[in-house]
Amino acid sequence: MKRTLESLDPAAIEGKRALVRVDFNCPIKDGVVTDATRIRAALPTIKYLRDRGARVVLLSHLGRPKSGPDPRYSMQPVVRELERLLGAPVVFLPDPASEAAATATRRLPRGGVALGENTRFYPGEERNDPALAERFAALGDFYVNDAFGSAHRAHASTEAVARILKPAVSGFLMQQELRYLGEALHHPARPFVAVLGGAKISGKIDLIEALLPRVDAILLGGAMACTFFRAMGLETGTSLVEEDRLDMARQLMAKAGDKLVLPGGAVIAQRLEPGAETRAVRRDAIPPGWAMYDIDPATEHAFAERIRGAGTVVWNGPMGVFETPPFDHGTLAVAHAMAAATAGGATTVIGGGDSAAAVAQAGLTDRISHVSTGGGASLEFLEGKPLPGVAALDEA
Known about the structure:
The protein is α/β, with parallel strands linked by helices. The chain has two domains: 5-174, Phosphoglycerate kinase, N-terminal domain (Rossmann fold), CATH 3.40.50.1260; 188-382, 3-Layer(aba) Sandwich (Rossmann fold), CATH 3.40.50.1260. The protein has 15 helices and 17 strands. The termini are close together.
């Protein structure tokens, strides 16, 4: 267990500078934030600190700038959106590694908020450079990590700074992520069902291996099902198949036995585009020249039955090419089954990324127990890998 923000004595907060690592890696178009989900997710931590008289100093990365500062990845549009959501001014720190920035943080009023420029503008950020971490640490009197989406990266603003600036505690979003993912992994209500999708088996091997001993069933969809079909000796037409993973697929099937549940059929087409002719066929009836782009209605029904009957469900990865209707049908069916399971008392956890986008598209986000803000971080957590940004925080 990691020490939490709530564990801090109010006297350790009032008037002090809270250096908070957030994940404000938001989509921006024409200088405007187009989806503020990640900013909203950090608001409870920011509000808690402001209400207790802290001076709140925020750091985040944005995108993947190649070599140093790049105006396309500036945090300035995020400052404007944060001001709108807070209803309060936000000071922008153009160079958060400078002495001028440290001085500016000391001049903040109690409850004041500042946001630093993109941490990835500094080459030392991704190298986890201790010298850069020291300069970041000068911005605060204690450290709060609320950026679960970046916790699997050992960067200067997520790992090294937490070992310098003490106390180093988890924010409310981080705390919630660790609680839901941890309980699903270590104390699941049974049956425990994992739903895994996506394009490639290679990206999910570690996850399948880690979950097999823990779950009662793994429902597997997406294009990676085709690699398993080919490993079974079935015709897969022009479907995406990882030829170099066929032996691995056979080994996983042998190891998993009945726990690994593959689609019974597929929705196929000759080309991936809206309006293309589609067919729903059994998995052993995919003809040459056609490709699987979604699970079939019979599989939707079978998967939904399993999900609705579960005590805990973890979902990571779409069932088909959900960006291109009608191949979004299987993914949306799983989203609705997850919402129904939640309503029935199950704990449902979505591991970020495309699955989170699909649930949002279906308008079901509020009907899921927990939707993770960190796709890569949630994946590595469920694989049982230590997250550097979490490991560096103080123990409770």
